[in-house]
Amino acid sequence: MTLTTLSLNQVALKSSQVLAEMEKAIVGKRPFLEKVFCTVLAGGHALIEDLPGLAKTLTARSFSVVLGLAFKRIQFTPDLLPADITGGYVLNRQTGTFELVQGPIFANLVLGDEINRAPAKTQAAMLEAMEERQVTLEGKTLRLPYPFIVLATQNPIEYEGTFPLPEAQLDRFMVMLSVGYPTAEEELEVLKRRWERREDEIALQRITDTEELIAMRKTVESVYMSPDIARYIVALVHASRVEPQVAIGASPRASLSLLKLSRARAAMEGREFVIPDDVKFIVKEALVHRLLIKPDIWTVGISAADVVERILKSVPVPKLE
Which of 30, 47, 84, 108 has the most CB atoms at less than 10 Å from its CB? Predict the structure, then answer.
């Protein structure tokens, strides 16, 4: 039977089951998986920036299986056109009419692989889809499936033939994440699992579906946030705008993202209210990609992550009753 409403305890249990199933495919990266799923529950998109071979694509594909979502993958290249993403109207010679052929953007979970390899016009088509959850074809507006989630990847070390994402599109990503190298023990476990299953494919079970995920998101909206926590979020974002090392600070969209993410984190823990640790859990991932560091500061090795770390230490943490 399809559930239309879920309690916070049910959301916490379902979240735990989803993450446990994901760990069958992604070894030793529980915090990373928690942050991806937190973004999914918050209704946002995630940009995963890391080196090749660290399971970025596997993460997206595995989440689509475990969450029961329709999945499409777009390999971004310099010659990719907007129509290659959105689709278009094609003449049916038998009927003499134009029929819509939907592109890969029409899915619940879309993997944008190496998204920074696409030219500006193609990135603009992605921007509309990510922000408006719709595409425009021949003057007609078509809604995208709900839920609609973009997990995009980019390589931080290879810049030849790339088109850096504009700040406006970076701001559309609720978080920017990195996977990181596994430890020697975790990498050995990856090898052990591979030789034991005797095939490349990893068999994952579906834990939920689109209707249940929508119900989980509705439950997240019931999580209480005190005015003190809201002021804490605003203080963190405001501090990013007055830091002397920062040329451009985080936008109000960052505050809204932290609101959604911290409530999603609380729901994953089965809590009816947000605590400061929920904000701290995801604040770096929500702010780093939204900050533009001054060039003279960047040359001496101070990064946006360093600035966010300093902001976290300087802004007083509220004490809850």
Answer: 47
Arithmetic mean of pLDDT over the chain: 90
Q: Which residues 6+ apart lie within 8 Å of 169 measured at CB?
A: 123, 126, 127, 130
Q: Does domain 223-314 have CATH number 1.10.8.80?
A: yes
Q: Where in the chain is the domain with CATH 1.10.8.80?
A: 223-314
The highest-confidence range among 107-116, 227-236, 311-320, by mean pLDDT, is 227-236
Q: Is 235 within 8 Å of 13 (Cβ atoms)? A: no
Residue 145 is classified by DSSP as P
CATH superfamily ID and name for 8-214: P-loop containing nucleotide triphosphate hydrolases (3.40.50.300)
C-alpha dihedral over 24, 30, 35, 40, to 10 degrees? 20
Structure tokens at 142: 């078509």
Residues 6+ away with beta carbon under 8 Å from 63: 22, 36, 37, 40, 69, 109, 151
Give the residue carrying structure tokens 């596994």: 182
CA nearest to 208, candidates 9, 5, 14: 14
Find residue 72's DSSP bridge partners: 110
Mean pLDDT of 80-96: 85
Q: Is 116 helix (H, G, I), strand (E, B) or coil?
A: helix
Map tokens 């030789």 to a residue: 195
- The β-bridge partners of 149 are 109
Phi-psi region of 318 (alpha: psi -120 to 50; beta: other; left: phi over 0): beta
CB 114 within 8 A of CB 163: no
Gap between the Cα atoms of 34 and 91, Å rounded = 45
Task: Match 């050995």 to its residue by tokens.
Answer: 188
Q: Is the model's pLDDT at 281 over the cut of 50?
A: yes
What proportion of the chain, given as a percentage, has pLDDT over 70? Answer: 96
Closest by Cα among 254, 76, 35 to 165 = 76
- What distance in Å separates the CA atoms of residue 180 and residue 57, rounded to the nearest whole number? 14
